[in-house]
Amino acid sequence: MNFNRHSNLEGQHAFLGASKYHWINYTDDKIADSYVRFLATQKGTVLHAFAAQCILLGQKLPKSQKTLNMYVNDAIGYKMTPEQILYYSPNCFGTTDAICFRNNFLRIHDLKTGEIDAHIEQLEVYAALFCLEYHIRPADIEMELRIYQHDQILYHKPTVEDILPIMDRIITADKVINKIREEEG
Prior knowledge:
alpha+beta, five-stranded mixed beta sheet, 5 strands, globular, DUF2800 domain-containing protein
């Protein structure tokens, strides 16, 4: 059998693909809802890339109470770095939407384009990763974490009591995973 070549599709996944087969049991309404969420996720990816380019170029957006505009303009105003990876180990790392650290003040901003409400814990994990990667004690710095979503800004000033347990959990969980890897290797 000479199979058809679909080289233009290599590495891609169809929305109605075999690896995510649960859709075969969905109603038409559920398929439509799932596809709308899928499109929203794709739009969010494009908006994040657009925001990162604006920040890198210092291109402010018109001043308004719109989520994207507030996020981009604040990140530029604070001279933040977009899409920065924070790394502890191969088991634990993540990419902040925007971050800066100056004068012992850590600032992390997160752009949320979806409808599901964001959770500040994600930004607390980023703060813990920052402290671990750069060997900074949370007690020695101040922090402000922001979530931009639904045309609003959620502000959070985490304490040592918020960040230190997450740092400890990262270290412990990483050891657990490494032990399993050693036993399997």
